[in-house]
Design brief:
By secondary structure, the chain is α+β, with helices and mostly antiparallel strands. It is built from 10 helices and 14 strands. Helix 2 runs antiparallel to helix 3 and helix 6 runs parallel beside helix 9. The two termini are 23 Å apart.
């Protein structure tokens, strides 16, 4: 599937969309957080854990820097009464009677960011506040900023996908439909490796040599690489495995240090919106739309799985060939083609 086939304007890296107050706010916020993190990095990163986020994930020193940068910037520059929901700060009303909810993951990819790698991104989504319980389907603007490079993606309901800083035009979706040639990423944080291997180890074996398998520790970076054409697919199936096999809960709690760590709304609010605008096929691991996901609920029942692919054919093959029974019972072993 090409960018042209999605009907989405291709960006040359120069801003081409309408310069709206929301676009200025989201892109400027992303740049500010990036600048603060780069300044902190220059002082010598500690890579220390300072506690846990409300969802139970480990909070690193860079998370604190980024959270403060978000709050300080929005208090000074938000052009509309807003509420804020972030990974570590949870819910904050920045003004009375908010009109907009901003869902921000100040660093999606804390671990690679702490290591100075390029996979960390600032993720920002905006939705009308409404009754205070907006869902992912209500998101009407989103921005991603790469912390290492400064490259960015932005879209809203009134304009096409805009970007800057990439070496090739985006969106640039792959046309691959063959799992054996698939370049894809998977997620292991909070996911028992044994269970994941039983579910898709055969796909890893099939694609590792003639394609490529990656673990980036960032759902946002992974899915955004489908938009840029660098990856064909992204798979995070932990939440479906738990729902299908409740007896695995102890395994998930063990590797999550007492918490269930699947995709939280702040992990995916921005990138799902941008991916759909780019023509990526993106659903949960049941093949269902992610739009009903609450943007302000961290509970296990609102956490999500995700399968994203550049083509409908590849997306369907992933849904059909992952071993949802985890190899239990009398299920026939997968063949080379399955």
């Amino acid at each position: 599937m090409s960018a042209a086939s999605t009907g989405t304007p291709v960006s040359t890296g120069t801003p081409t969309g309408t310069d709206t107050p929301m676009k200025r706010l989201l892109t400027s916020l992303g740049r500010h957080v990036r600048a603060e993190l780069l300044a902190y990095e220059a002082t010598g990163r500690e890579r220390s854990v300072h506690g846990d986020s409300p969802g139970g994930d480990a909070q690193f020193d860079v998370d604190e820097v980024a959270e403060k940068a978000v709050l300080d910037y929005l208090r000074a520059h938000a052009h509309v009464p807003a509420a804020l929901y972030t990974e570590d700060g949870s819910y904050v009303e920045l003004a009375p009677d908010p009109e907009v909810l901003l869902v921000v993951d100040p660093i999606d990819g804390t671990r690679p960011t702490s290591a100075g790698l390029e996979m960390g991104m600032v993720s920002i989504a905006a939705a009308p506040y409404g009754d205070g319980r907006p869902t992912l389907a209500d998101v009407d603007a989103a921005c991603l900023v790469e912390i290492k490079s400064g490259a960015w993606l932005y879209a809203d309901d009134d304009s096409g996908l805009d970007s800057g800083g990439f070496t090739a035009p985006v969106p640039r979706l792959s046309s691959n439909t063959d799992p054996a040639r698939m370049f894809w990423s998977i997620e292991f944080n909070g996911h028992p490796m044994d269970l994941m291997t039983r579910a898709y180890g055969h796909l890893v074996d099939r694609s590792a040599n003639t394609g490529g398998i990656f673990v980036f520790n960032s759902s946002t970076f992974s899915i955004s690489r489908i938009i840029t054409g660098q990856l064909d697919a992204y798979v995070d199936i932990g939440n479906r495995v738990l729902r299908d096999h409740p007896d695995t809960e102890e395994d998930f709690l063990r590797v999550g240090r007492g918490s269930i760590l699947h995709l939280f709304p702040y992990d995916i609010a921005a990138v799902v919106y941008l991916a759909r605008r780019a023509g990526v096929v993106i659903t949960d691991a049941y093949g269902d739309d992610l739009g009903a996901t609450s943007l302000v609920d961290l509970g296990p029942m609102n956490q999500k799985s995700c399968i994203a692919a550049a083509t409908p054919e590849l997306h369907k093959q992933l849904l059909d060939t992952i071993r949802w029974d985890l190899g239990r019972g009398d299920a026939a072993p997968a063949t080379e083609e399955s």
